[in-house]
Design a protein that fits this description.
Blueprint: H1 2-123
Organism: Palpitomonas bilix
Family: Belongs to the BLOC1S1 family.
Protein name: Biogenesis of lysosome-related organelles complex 1 subunit 1
């Protein structure tokens, strides 16, 4: 009887071990499946992040080029407005010079006219 109980116990123990081994294999497969699913999700998200990063890098380069072009344009506009201001100042200086010359010439003409009148009057 004891021997029968021992044999039954050994059979039951073997059955439990076999069942544990099956459950262990199922758990391992489930863990691998879960790890693969998370790995694929992370890989997909990583690829998406890389694509966004590449897009951002391209946009930053375009923005840098646009900013450089804007700097060149504003520098050119500043030079043009500076040159225009200088030209307007020179034009104003020329107008003042022309007025001064005109005034001096009128004064000289008036003086010459007066001298001519005095000469004519003295000859009469």
């Amino acid at each position: 009887m004891l021997s029968a109980i021992q044999k039954q116990h050994v059979r039951d123990l073997a059955a439990v071990k076999a069942e544990c081994e099956v459950e262990k294999e199922e758990a391992t497969k489930a863990a691998e499946s879960l790890a693969n699913a998370y790995g694929e999700a992370l890989l997909s998200q990583s690829n998406e992040v890389n694509e966004v990063q590449n897009t951002l890098v391209k946009e930053v380069k375009q923005l840098e080029a646009s900013a450089a072009q804007f700097v060149r344009q504003t520098t050119a506009w500043a030079k043009i407005t500076g040159d225009l201001g200088k030209s307007l100042k020179e034009l104003g200086d020329f107008q003042n010079w022309a007025r001064t010359i005109e005034k001096d010439l009128r004064t000289m003409c008036g003086t010459v006219d007066d001298l001519i009148r005095e000469e004519i009057a003295s000859k009469q």
